Amino acid sequence: MKKIFFIILLIFNTHLIANEEAFVVNDIKLEGLQKVDPGTVYAYLPIEIGDTFYTSNSTEIIKILFKTGFFDDIVIERKKSTLILSFIERPTMSSIEFEGLEDIKEEQIQEVLIAAGIQPGKIFNESVLEKIRSELLEQYYARGKYAVKININETRLPDNQISIVVYVKEGESALIKQIKITGNRSFSDEELISKFNSTTPVWYEFWKNSGAYSSPVLDADIRTLVQFYQNHGFLEFSVDSSQVSLDKEKKHVYVTINVSEGKRFIIDKVMVSGKFILNVEKIADAIETFSGEYVSKGKINRSVDAIKALMSEHGYAFANINAIPKITEGDKVDLDFFIDPGQRVYVRRIEIKGNVRTSDKVLRRELRQMEGVWYSSNLIKVSKRRLQKLAYIENVTFQERKVPNKKNMLDVIINVEEKLSGNFNIGAGFGGSGTGVQLNTSISQENFLGTGNQVSFAINTAKTTKRYSFDFYNPYHNLDNVSRGFGFNFMQEDTTNTDTQTTFKSDRKELSFSYGIPMTEENRINFRIKAQTYNVKSSKDSAQELLDFIEKHGDDYTNAELIAGYTIDTRDRRSFTTSGFKTNLKGQLNIPGSDIEYFKLTFKTVGFFEIQDDLVLKLTSEVAGGTGFGSTNKIPFYDKFRTGGPKSVRGYEKNSLSPKDSRGQPLGGDFMFNASAEVQFPTPVLSEIEELKNLQSSFFVDFGKAYKDMEDFDIDEIRGSAGLSFSFLSPFGGVTINFAVPFNDDESDKTEGVQFRLGSL
User: Fold this and answer.
1) Domain end (from 260, 294, 318)
2) Which residues of the chain register pLDDT less than 70?
3) pTM more than 0.90
4) Relative orientation angle of helices 126-142 and 215-230, to the nearest 10 degrees
5) Phi, psi (deg, nearest 5) at residue 231
């Protein structure tokens, strides 16, 4: 077709004086070029100044220049000894726009078109429109949208340009009507299909577009099918073919997968060979598969990875482990793990990338893998976990890179993604339960000037509480990772018009100093000493318990308080944790000689367990108790344990699950118990939006209650609630909304079906 096209062009679009004598070309002129560079044309021309031009040369020139795709028409003329080429250029595409895209993002389509050579600035011809159409159809058909309609309009613009607008009407995805597997003898269709993500429609998963056909998803399901068989001894298993048929209305697809199972193999011997750098017993312990079992490629691969991990912990980062099942006889195989440790390597250099606000030294002090020492994958894991726990780091990836021509060296590349760690908040709000109008202003920075130091200043002017505070914390006071901090706090409380706490007025001033000492990578001891002055005033509505306390101890107290805590933290990250524990044991002692003498002891543990991808079980338990000593027989009213509310037992008003005073207001107790079970998962539909990627949902069950003292503990009195929670990690901090239904509650309990909370997640 191209040859015919060129002949027609030569006949109708080329004007050349026939039977003209040959001549020597003294000059070549190009006319009509607008966007095509003259140098490009000269580069393609098969003739130069000084060459002899023959009439037959015109055919060759036309063919060559038309093949560039730049021109609609070419005219060749002679003027004396000058060869003149006149051009009409093809238009270029000024823009390609899309309307009606929903299932596919425009950026995805643009990437596909660019890969096909279609983008603004490129030459336009009629074939471009068909390419756009075919590329779009391919994308939509892969998603099961066979009813998609595509219309393309092109508009001529000045300067020989074309604008293209693609109108898309996506239509509905075709639904899977049936999935059938043929050739399977050992497992039923139902058992195999249960492993697939491709399914027939399920009504309770309507938000997922349940049952919609997708070619990439089906391809992944076929790979899953192969893995399933190979993990159950069928080493010769194969998928012979797969067919997808469409009904006339293009609304339903029928999937058929044809398989050949082959023979099922059993392991006869498991051996380890090669060069043993480590104790052979350690290597054997890492192997998951044993004699007499059906061959499992999954177990083999995990065993290989485990052996590699062992080798990597000791500096052999590029160890090569081969484990190939060898068929010996019948249905039996021998499995030999051959170990080639390679050369032990050390880290030449560690590069940190992506940190714009945080200085390198702040991040490097968290590293346990150092430069100039043997590489250890275990130290890499610890380093990654420590970095991900930083409040100002969103994500961390590590990459090992070989050093050219140096078999015993590697470089470690650390890519960090920072997040905002500083907030400035100013606003007003209205609180329930009589708390009234409040003004809140706070400035906090957990990475002050990129140093990793934490600084915060806050002002709160709620009706019940007026607070002014400043805190400074340096997590690396010295090279031994000893932390140090200090702060002061001035607070005025007036609970006379609330029903969330016993009624009193007070002025409190506090100055504190804190230290933290690491014991291991995950264990830490913290100390805090606090000097406090406290003035309390009763009111006409004060309960008898408060009046009795003031009568015995007076209304002015000076206390010295020592707080000591032991923390174990194995979490993989600070927010949206997926695995690990955080356990804290804290003791609080008002030092003998203080006006008020008492102690408190709190134990709290939170565990995270990844059930499957994106599904995490969170378990929380908390037990706290205390008592007075010396002249004080109870914990003072202002420091008692209280529970209930969005931070403890959701669905109940704040502090409402606490012992009441003589006027029926929450006083608090000397013993408290809380527990919670929560299943966390990405919010359906919404979490797929880039701006809401940090939105998480959870189903929860909470239990808890505070008691007058430990002797009053009664498990039958523990209140409970169940519900749904939504948490969002915004640039300004955590936001949580809870919807809860209380149970085992009493008629006197104060409940709240919907609760809102700001703070850490």
Assistant:
1) 260
2) 1-21, 201-210, 421-443, 462-463, 498-502, 685-692, 731-733, 758-761
3) no
4) 50
5) -85, -5
Are 543 and 550 spatial neighbours (Cβ–Cβ below 8 Å)? Answer: no
The position carrying tokens 């393609």 is 44
Same-domain status, 523 and 652:
yes
Distance CA 19, CA 31 (A): 24
The three-point CA angle 434-435-436 to 5° equals 90
Distances in Å between the alpha carbon of 486 and those of 16, 152, 476, 483, 530?
A: 93, 67, 14, 11, 10
The domain spanning residue 672 has which CATH number? 2.40.160.50
Query: Contact at 8 Å (CB) between 414 and 390?
Result: no
Cα(24)–Cα(81) distance, integer angstroms: 6
Res 13: pLDDT:
42
DSSP string across 341-381: -----EEEEEEEES-SSS-HHHHHTT--S-TTSB--HHHHH
pLDDT at res. 203:
53
Whole-angstrom distance, CA of residue 718 vs CA of residue 622: 13
Asked whether residue 138 falls in the same domain as residue 227, the answer is no
Q: At what angle do helices 377-388 and 297-313 cross, to 10 degrees?
A: 90
In tens, the pLDDT along 522-531 reads 899 999 999 9
Q: How far apart are CA 399 and CA 393, in angstroms?
A: 17
Domain that holds residue 431: 420-473
User: Measuring CA to CA, which residue among 430, 433, 486, 484 is closest to residue 462?
Assistant: 430
498: number of Cβ within 10 Å: 23
Q: How far apart are CA 118 and CA 126, in angstroms?
A: 12
Residue identified by tokens 């309307």 is 99
pLDDT on residue 533: 93
The answer to whether residues 143 and 181 belong to one domain is no
CB 472, CB 444: distance < 8 Å: no
The amino acid occupying position 554 is: G
Helix (H), strand (E), coil (C) string for 639-675: HCECCCCCCCCCCECCCCCCCECCCCCECCECEEEEE
Q: What is the pLDDT of residue 452?
A: 84
Instruction: Let me know if residue 743 belongs to a domain.
Output: no
Distances in Å between the Cα of 322 and the Cα atoms of 233, 271, 296, 337 are 18, 12, 15, 6
Question: CB–CB of 493/504 below 8 Å?
Answer: yes
What does the block give as tokens for 414? 């650390």
Number of domains in the chain: 7
Give the whole-angstrom CA distance, residue 580 versus residue 565: 19
Which residue, among 340, 339, 345, has the nearest Cα to 316 in the 3D structure?
345
Last residue of a domain, one of 89, 124, 153: 89
Compute the half-sphere exposure of residue 440: CA atoms within 13 Å on the CB side of its CA.
17
The long-range contacts involving 623-626, CB below 8 angstroms and separated by at least 24 positions, are 623/672, 623/673, 624/600, 624/671, 624/672, 624/673, 625/600, 625/601, 625/670, 625/671, 625/672, 625/709, 625/710, 626/588, 626/598, 626/599, 626/600, 626/601, 626/670
For residues 710 and 671, the answer to whether their CB atoms sit within 8 Å is: yes
Contact 676, 724 (CB under 8 A): no
Q: Please check whether residues 660 and 599 belong to one and the same domain.
A: yes
Alpha helices in 143-258 (DSSP H): 189-193, 215-230
- Per-residue pLDDT tens over the stretch 232-266: 999 999 999 999 998 888 888 999 999 999 999 99
Query: Are 632 and 557 contained in the same domain?
Result: yes
Nearest to 120 by CA among 510, 699, 128, 693: 128
Which amino acid would we find at residue 297?
K
Predicted pLDDT of residue 540: 76
Kind of pairing, strands 733-743 and 719-730? Answer: antiparallel
